[in-house]
Protein 1
Amino acid sequence: MQKNLKYYYNMEIKESIITRNSSYYFKHNNSYYVFCLYDRNINEINDIYQLSLYINQFNYYFGYIILNQNKNIITMIDNIPYVLIKTNIIDNKKIKLSDIKKYSLVVNHLKNSSLNRFAWVDLWSKKIDYYEYQIDHIKNKYPKIVDSIYYYLGMAENAISYIKDALIINQQHDLYVSHQRIKENDTLLDLYNPLNIIIDHVTRDISEMLKSFFFINNYDYEEIESYFASLNMSLDDAKLLYGRLLYPSLYFDLYEAVINNNTDEKEFLKIIDRVDEYEMFLYRIFLIINKQHQLPDVVWLSRKFNY
């Protein structure tokens, strides 16, 4: 990789290069860099670059995308796309809830960007239709999926119904710099990596982080309540946050990974075996939010826990 960095970026790398998750980490002239595998839609890279330049004006820690000597964002190495990022993250700790609040940046002027993912109802409805269509085609090969998927499709439909009210009443929600997904073991380097960014509602990152924390048993209800109190959420924000907690994004992410042969079907057990626990988690979060806002009931949840 040293030769490639010399050829495309004129960088003489004298220190060791660390390889992790198909990306390369190294130090050059007292600065830290990551040569990142680019695994997103190629057509989004220009919008990612322009958004990253905007964020760099306001956030010291956000990574800088470095163009190669041909002034290209993407560098192809053996037909694999990479992007070079200069980072100011030295102490690479795991992400905390409080880190999300520090990250917030409104980008309403970019609502027409290809990175905008706030059309939740449309996106989720299309996913449901797609999964329902696939069931007959995968039922013999993936029995664990078929045994569980109807429950999660029901959860997704419930989530759509839940957020529709908030979206109809208020159609002028602010858009924020967000992330495709915040995963359970993500660090500050992942949080400030420009290749992870999208544009969405502020509650996206919060809800996805809470889901990830649940599945690694890294959550504390008092900490969550304190964090919510610091956000000063509106009722519509609270509805959208809770609706996104209802939406089973982690299950659907795993579905895609299994179908694309990137993981074993047995991984579903980590989610399926904890259905009752997650329903209790949803119930407890409902009670916490209800101390600030009167959320609409989730009928099946209220019947189960008699609240």
Protein 2
Amino acid sequence: MSLKKRRFKYLTESLIEGNIKITATFAIVVVFLIFIFIMRESLPIFFNSEVQQEITFGQFFNSIAWRPVSDNPRFSLWPIILGSLKVTLIALFFAVPVAIAAALYSSEFAGRRLKEFIKPTVELLAGIPSVVLGFFALMVMASFLKNIFGWEIRLNAVNAGIALGFAVIPSIYSLAEDAINAVPRSFREAALGLGASPWQTALKVVLPAALPGVSAAVLFGMGRAVGETMVVLMAAGNAPLFSFNPLNSTRTMTATIAAELGEVVFGSGHYHALFFIGLVLFLVTFVINMTSWALFDGLMSKLYGAKK
């Protein structure tokens, strides 16, 4: 290679590397600024005396009712926290077995052509707008499940959780498949050489070795479920009830922000309470995603002896 070509290649690689660094830095700065904005709008609850006449931090936890617009306002977070937990757990209960089974099958057993069909099909779900999934759950799935099981309430946490599971499956599948594919081929060859069947090798050797990465995939899907808005807004009944019954209507933190922020009085206690919910959501998803990254990074370190 001539000196001129080597210089051109070096310049091209430097530009690409610089562009990646600038883009990554810009993304981090934007996320940080969003966090600062949300936190700034939440702080009056703690430091503004006028806002504290309407709402204090203690009101978030000293009752079980969310009724911000009434003669006697209530701003308890318990109903919407419980709603978020119910819908998220139902979504994971539905999505995790399906996603991990699909990832294990496509990685260990599917032929090349079948794998080329399974992977795009599963990941195609990620391209479906959440409002479409919510509309499907609202108009079709809710009535179908009610007629099958005889539920009294058509829109409930189970209906929203199953619909949310469809949105979560691609996220879990993609990361779980990457974790399974990262297991060295020597693990499989050693198990097969000792007489294990392909299914035994997959379930008792490959999957346990990839468990940190699979756990990271589940946590990543959990973060996706916690932050979802339109599906739960349309399919869960949108009622902030403090009930452990998954067949009752419910409302999540994201749905509360989406339903009320557009009509709230700017600068009111209700307004700042919604931003405080956003702050809690931001911190929860940040912790979940960082834990997911740490688990996946730990898998890479375990399998290859160095952090990726």
Protein 3
Amino acid sequence: MVSSTQRVAVVIPCYRVKNQIVSVVQAVLPWADHVIVVDDACPEQSGAYLAQQVQDPKLRIIQHKKNMGVGGAMIAGYQEALKTDALVIVKMDGDGQMDPKYLGRLIAPLLVASADFSKGNRFYDLLALPSMPWLRKLGNFGLTFLAKISSGYWHISDPTNGFIAIRREALSLLNIQLLDHSYFFEINVLVQLNIIHAVAVDVPIPAQYGDEKSSLNPLKILFAFPPKLLASFFRRIWWRYFVYDVNMVTIFLVMGVLLFFGGTGFGIFKWFSSVQADINQPMGTIALAMLPIILGFQLILQAAVLDIVDKPATALCRYLKQE
């Protein structure tokens, strides 16, 4: 158990989990000081059912009249958690796939202020990993690489794992209202954390899979996530290297993009001109087009390398006062 000054709030988004929500909340209550359940217009009325089955002063139930998505439910839960005295806010799903006995392991880096954010990683456990459905496993491996590029946290894997925890100080710095309302929520949190230079860590935590039905549609993710990942990448680069800070990544990116696309544009123009005039361009002209393309690509690649190695050394919570 944590000390009285290190209080923990657990937020549980709730949708179509009537059969699991009571056991999940009962298992979480001994570990948390506040349990916030957000019924996201669940057609099974999971929130009302939970209120009948569990009466505990630690428990708060938020009822949405309209379905806002898991991200929308978490936004409401985070806002409610910030009204409490919780130092650490944890997200757990209501389907029973996250064992509360690992909650202490998840929040340990946050309690000692060595990290601002921690998340479970199911890929560390080679014994439990085979229990993950193969389709979900395949999707996670592919999504992990794209999420690394988008978020800038190259040491973080299993990006869609919903077992996450965040320090109050870091959460207060995020623009909660701009967080994605869909299952892109977890990756979106990572993007915002990278922009403010927060320390994020992976914690080995196995998942448990039963007969619960997932609301995650792999086909929908296949088409919905790539545009969001691309938009998040450009948003992160803009805010991180052009608004909050200007460093060598900024310089390499600007010069690299100008040279690469300038050379490409020049080459296309000369190629089109040679086709129109039915003549061959001299080698010097070809070299004049290729040189800035090669130099530009090298500068963009160097900017990418610097972005990968640019990790914060100290957690924000070490020098931010708790409000």
